[in-house]
Amino acid sequence: MKEVNPETFTTDISGMNKRKAFAILKDFVLGDECYQGEILAVCGLKRTGKTTLLKQLLCNIEAYTASCAFLEMQDSDTMKMLERRIEEEQAKGKTVIFINEITKVSDFINNSSSLADCFAKAGVRIIISGMDSLSIAFAEDYELYDRVRKVNTTYISFAEYHTLFPSEDINDYIRYGGLFYKNEAEKSTIGYENILSYLHDAVTMNIANSLKNNADIDERDSAFKNINETELKSITEKAAGLYSGSPDGEIITALTDKKDNAEQFARMIGSGKIADSYITLQMIKELEKWLKEIGFLAFIEKRTFTNVSGVWKKLPPTYEYHIVQPAVRYSFLKKAAESEIERYQHLDKQRQKEMAETLNRNMLDEIVGQTVIFDVMSSLPDERYIVCKPEFMHENRLINGYDMLIYDRQENSYRYFLIRRKSDDYADNIEEITSVAESHFGECKSVCMLYVEKSPNGFAGRECYNISDFLIAVDKYGDMDKVMISLKKRGSN
User: Fold this and answer.
1) What does residue 473 show for φ and ψ, rounded to 5 degrees?
2) What is the C-alpha separation between 24 and 475, in angstroms, rounded?
3) Residue 274 pLDDT
4) b/e for 131-163, b at 16 or more Cβ within 10 A?
5) Where are the beta strands (DSSP E) in 275-361?
6) H/E run at residue 461
7) Rounded to 5 degrees, what are φ and ψ at 310?
8) pTM of the entire predicted model
9) Which of 290, 354, 369, 415 would give a disulfide with 419, using CB separation of 3.0 to 4.6 Å?
10) pLDDT averaged over every residue in the chain
11) Strands 318-323 and 297-308, how do they pair?
């Protein structure tokens, strides 16, 4: 391990805005949670701002700087070596210990409890971070339990992204959100191959290293016992593509529901050759669990209403996969759209152009829609609100309805939202679907259009708000009544 000089370590962050998680880190350093045996873990995928958070914290606790030690772990380190080093730092009067790249320590997962039991309870504030965030999750399961407080940097909402980069809008967030770039030149060169490389470094190796270092995983029970790193890489890439969706807006769901889906998935992984092992249902479930654990994969709730023989019924909730890093999802869908466009090379140029525009519009509409729903769901308190994607089926035909429903449990009322890049698109059958929803969600308080680009054709007489303004307001207030009041005031100014 090596000790890092805090002054040298923090030279490149001047003028950078801070993420919300910064307040959690600072409160931990200045607080007394350590005496209850609690440590703080800053986890998240590669290039999501973990190191920047630590640098900002070091720069903002001047009164404690003399009491801080910053250690960076190496592959050859063990927990015994780290424990001896912390004891040495204690003897020097250090009470705040930053341990970067903790997951490089091969026995960290199975011997991490000493950080909480021996040092935190003695008054040392331990802040750990590491690239292999699944290792931190394993350590929590096997050793640390409720004595670790985790801050995950992988997901960043549009509102928070806009705070860090005020000049960028929702379009920039869709293309680059979830990944942090050093400069504009680096952003402009990002492409599908770069995203595949990122997935390998941030996700595949995260999982592979964590499994290798977890002595408590019984290989006989692991679905991945015969999978090598190359095959795991291929599985991860295919999974990310499927979870991203398809260019016509359809989300690939429930890979684990049917055996034939799993077998088809196996054939895709094989890529025309005989694979060393086929992908099983257990393997898909295990991979999905890990992707959720590291914060890469989440879900959006869908509420479906169906009309059969003139009677509307509400079906049990279902869920859509959601990759929380928009840049990753955008890259996969863009690649899928390009592949789809190649099928129309036999058409004339004008028709090819029209097809390409339609595919790209559908792709962007789908990403924007899921982004808005997930951000709103993450910002509003779930004890009060249900945020879901409503779907209305009439005799097995999808009715053109609204994209987001927000139900207020406290008031027994709801609001409908149509989410579009352009504001001259609208839903039909609104009276019918409103009456159906009211029977389950109470009074309809408003029907609104959220748009990215304002149309010169007007708004067809409905409430319309810019998506960026809406998401920033939801993040600020966390209360839909206050959100709508602020948006209306903004619109009248």
Assistant:
1) -70, -40
2) 17
3) 47
4) bbbbbbbbbbebbbeebbbbbbbbbbbbbbbbb
5) 297-308, 311-314, 318-323
6) none
7) 85, 0
8) 0.89
9) 369
10) 84
11) antiparallel
Two structure tokens written together for 123: 């008054």
Instruction: Kindly list the distances between the CA atom of residue 347 and the CA atoms of 232, 334, 341, 355, 363, in Å, as whole numbers in the listed order.
Output: 39, 21, 10, 10, 21
Q: What is the dihedral of CA 305, 308, 309, 311, to 10 degrees?
A: -30
Nearest to 324 by CA among 360, 284, 290, 294: 294
pLDDT of 300 strictly over 50: yes
The distance from CA 204 to its chain's CA centroid, rounded to whole angstroms, is 16
**Residue 255: which of 221, 316, 226, 297 has the closest Cα?**
297
Shortest CA distance to 380 belongs to which of 485, 478, 484?
Answer: 478
Q: What is the DSSP string of 245-297?
A: --TTS-----TTT-HHHHHHHHHHHHTTS--SSPPPHHHHHHHHHHHHHTTSE
The Cα–Cα gap between 363 and 357 comes to 10
Residue type, 108: F
Q: Is the pLDDT of residue 11 over 60?
A: yes
Exposed e or buried b per residue across 273-283, where buried means at least 16 C-beta atoms within 10 angstroms of its C-beta: eeeebebbbeb
Query: Of 395 and 148, which is predicted with more confidence?
Result: 148
Pick from 337, 159, 106, 132: which is nearest to 244 by CA? 337
Pairing outcome for strands 125-130 and 39-43: parallel
Tokens 């654990």 -> residue: 293
Is a pLDDT exceeding 80 seen at residue 125?
A: yes
Q: What is the DSSP letter of 35?
A: G
Angle (deg, nearest 10), helices 326-341 and 192-199: 130
